[in-house]
Recover the amino acids of this structure.
């Protein structure tokens, strides 16, 4: 008799499933469902580039498609496959992605009254409309409750729970008033599957609560009423309609309802794990352990590591979150990340790469990689900042933008693409350095996510810039895999250790730094860091006239 | 009986002619000849983007094509036209564009031994290989002969005569040794037409000599032997094989030879004027007078004005040159400019604009202009530096590069194009401010060159940023027109005043600044100037963290 679990991974533009054999690690089915609404699944507002919303119906339509699809694939792959041997489901999503819901737990966007109102839809993680609210929360928390801030890197972000809800209250009081409660996307889906959508029944995950909603056991859960009232009395009032306790994902959110079991072709009553964010589940799926940094390289990135919760860990300025139990039970989950990585490349290829590189986005990337892989570090003379979507770690500031310098009259698109890749790698190095400076040792880096699998050129540049070997997780779906493992574990019949051992592997191909590239990048990183601090740190004061000249010098040396 | 003159304008990528009626100003013929060699007429070196050379044969092939073509057109336009009524020829070229020649005056590139040697070819104005030599000349002149530097803005440029010749001596001693002398492109062509190519017979123009070769009457012509020997004894030795005196363009370089007269269909013996640079001739063709700034908007730009040489004029730091007689006889010619303007737009459209804007370069520009003309200043949130080819005025530094900041994940190509236009306008404003700070009044701005005629969107942005009305010269060929006027004048039968009055007009359409745009650009210029000084001025020290945030603030305000 086999044991299977299903993980569901809800990303920015699509959701996907993974059906895994918990004893062999074999992945028997995986289906992707692109969200049909908006532009690549995102509802935007032409008058404000900060708006990013989603349609909750897309999530439900996707749910059926990706689970039934995965089961079908498993039947094809393994003739004896029996869906009744699926012992649990786990779910991860992006976040903080709050959904305003009514008293029944129905998203307002699915009610007739608010079907056309963007503010009643899902506030996607990368919605940046709430920067003023984030700044105000940071300022008020610094004054009233510095301990709240310390746990999330010292600066509260516009991408997070309270900023967005407060923003909604300010710009659309009708939506705020109609929302009986707010539910994280990752909590809503398990609630739907288990019939527990009524806000007081939704089992909330500690991952989203701790990393984004300032929840911690040590101060009694969510921020206290006095603090919330200092933001707005309506938020203090909302607190009572949210939740008291949040749980790690080895806890069940409930049991699969008859109705959904029938729709999905699964056994009713199997446990559905408490939801968590994609990156945290992905880290588990990639085999995170103390000393291992998991980098999830996608449209944005997350860098996740863990430390036993018996360790002493001071505050890590600019590192977005340290939350007990958010990744592995019994460990601090430490989360950092970059607000845009793949998204920067997609922006570039969609808006600034001529068709001479190819007719499609895929062809353009392939041709640019072919051409840039023939050049050496520094040959472009270019240097970029990876801030087209702000900087999450270590500056925690969405009011930052992209920068490219070093262009001549000969600069070509693939050279700029290289500079953009390098910029994201310099950003990644800045995060690792900040962790190490605060006593979080990184012995091993395991990468996962689309870019780590598809872009060998990028991976080599990352190895050269990070200055350490980079492993790649074997699974192409580490987030969904992590979710599946929690789906299995939350029923209590199997341990996380055991399923991680069975299912989390790395590939044979490892990217090792090339010493001469490392040397050049070491020089260029110093210039990156100068620009980073000059444009990103309010207190910075200094000189910049050497930057262009040193880049020209490096270019000449490398081309010679 | 009519009086005509022919002007020849040798640009960066092509040469063109203009045949003008000196009494009516009517332009009866004009032909363009794109240089056939290299990439758009420029010989490049893939290993060094600073290299820009040309093939002198292209100039001679062009000469025949554009003169005979213009005569043909004149015959078609005016049945009674008689080429014998052409009373003179004038020539302008880019510069400093020195040509190494043998003892007969033959360019080394046209000799068998050096036909394949890039260093034996024409060193085009925008060749930037000699930056180290330029820096050394600046340093040695500052110590030994500060007066030399004062006349050329305080910094000697890699684009100029001595930098390039010294560079050749260093990197290719064989070419240097084989070169009996060096001749500016603008001096070589009149010498060819008049049979005076032997180096001691070539009549050198004061425009190129004064602006680029540190020539001035007050110190006895070219830099003295002691100074040149401090650079390299071989340069001191070369001095004796160059020239003692240089002349303004109302002087004849000689008379058209029988051989060329026959080839061209003109009367032998008509005078050919001493050559000058395109911008200086263009300023004359656009009607330059004291108080009038002529802006020649092309691949690069030149800003030219004049001041009676009876006026007192101190040094103007960073303004490339103040030379008596280089524009109008009896006036100081004052020259500034931007190393790349149209070239930046061409670089952008050729390398970074997707085909969704159009299939051709022309279509892409049209569509980008259509889209950007619908937006307001500041809406892009972008800010650029116009330094892809270095900064000629006021920083006089080729070791600078382009910069674009403010990109989000939504930034589109036409928005960047707008930011690039704005950057060049901010650069233009910086030049005007520098002139005014040093007592050179600018009452009137007349524009000429391709961009001033073809790009109304750009012209309106320029008017908004420069904050003054902009006129456009009526002639599409002001450089060639100025050359033709000197061709007419150098024979002595007609005055420059008279032919300028007859031939130099402005168009009815004038671009007037829009007050609300001016206000926004005033704010953005302060940020431009901060970046300009931060990256361009060695002594600058300060803060930059406000730049991205202020741009975001302006963007939000303008979009609202």
């Amino acid at each position: 008799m086999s044991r299977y679990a299903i993980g569901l991974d809800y990303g920015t533009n699509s959701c996907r499933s993974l059906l895994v054999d918990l004893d062999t690690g074999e992945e028997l089915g995986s289906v992707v469902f692109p969200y049909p609404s908006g532009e690549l699944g995102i509802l935007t507002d032409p008058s404000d580039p900060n708006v990013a919303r989603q349609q909750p119906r897309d999530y439900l339509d996707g749910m059926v498609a990706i689970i039934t699809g995965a089961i079908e694939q498993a039947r094809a792959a393994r003739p004896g496959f029996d869906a009744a041997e699926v012992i649990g489901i786990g779910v991860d999503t992006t976040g903080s992605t709050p959904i305003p819901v009514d008293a029944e737990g129905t998203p307002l966007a699915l009610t007739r009254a608010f079907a056309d109102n963007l503010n009643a839809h899902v506030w996607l993680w990368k919605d940046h409309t709430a920067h003023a609210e984030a700044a105000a929360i940071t300022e008020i928390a610094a004054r009233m409750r510095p301990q709240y801030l310390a746990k999330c890197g010292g600066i509260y972000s516009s991408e997070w729970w309270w900023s967005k809800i407060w923003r909604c209250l300010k710009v659309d009081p009708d939506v705020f008033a109609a929302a009986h409660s707010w539910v994280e996307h990752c909590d809503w889906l398990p609630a739907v599957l288990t019939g527990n959508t009524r806000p007081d029944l939704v089992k909330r995950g500690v991952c989203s609560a701790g990393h984004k909603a300032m929840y911690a056991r040590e101060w009694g859960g969510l921020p206290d009423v006095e603090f919330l009232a200092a933001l707005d009395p309506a938020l203090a009032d909302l607190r009572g309609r949210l939740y008291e306790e949040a749980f790690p994902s080895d806890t069940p959110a409930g049991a699969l309802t008859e109705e959904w079991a029938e729709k999905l072709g699964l056994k009713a009553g199997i446990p559905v794990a408490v939801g968590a964010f994609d990156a945290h589940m992905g880290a588990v799926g990639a085999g995170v352990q103390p000393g291992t940094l998991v980098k999830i390289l996608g449209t944005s990135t997350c860098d996740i590591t863990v430390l036993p919760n018996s360790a002493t860990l001071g505050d890590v300025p600019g590192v977005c979150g340290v939350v007990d139990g958010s990744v592995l039970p019994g460990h601090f989950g430490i989360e950092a990340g970059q607000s845009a990585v793949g998204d920067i490349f997609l922006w570039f290829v969609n808006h600034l790469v001529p068709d001479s590189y190819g007719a499609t986005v895929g062809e353009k990337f392939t041709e640019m990689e072919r051409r840039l892989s023939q050049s050496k570090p520094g040959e472009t003379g270019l240097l970029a900042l990876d801030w087209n979507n702000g900087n999450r770690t270590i500056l925690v500031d969405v009011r930052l933008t992209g920068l490219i310098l070093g262009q001549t009259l000969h600069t070509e698109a693939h050279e700029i693409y290289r500079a953009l890749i390098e910029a994201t790698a310099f950003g990644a190095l800045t995060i690792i350095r900040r962790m190490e400076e605060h006593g979080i040792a990184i012995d091993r880096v395991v990468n996962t996510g689309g870019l780590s699998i598809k872009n060998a050129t990028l991976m080599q540049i990352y190895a050269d810039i990070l200055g350490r070997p980079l492993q790649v997780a074997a699974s192409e779906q580490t987030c969904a895999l992590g979710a599946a493992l929690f789906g299995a574990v939350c029923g209590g019949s199997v341990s996380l250790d055991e399923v991680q051992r069975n299912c989390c592997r790395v590939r044979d191909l490892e990217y090792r730094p090339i010493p001469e590239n490392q040397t050049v990048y070491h020089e260029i990183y110093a210039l990156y860091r100068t620009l980073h601090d000059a444009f990103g740190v309010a207190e910075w004061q200094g000189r910049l006239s050497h930057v262009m000249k040193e880049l020209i010098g490096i270019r000449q040396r490398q081309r010679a």
In short: Chain A touches chain B through 53 residues (CB under 8 Å). The CA atoms of residues 394 and 431 of chain A lie 6 Å apart.
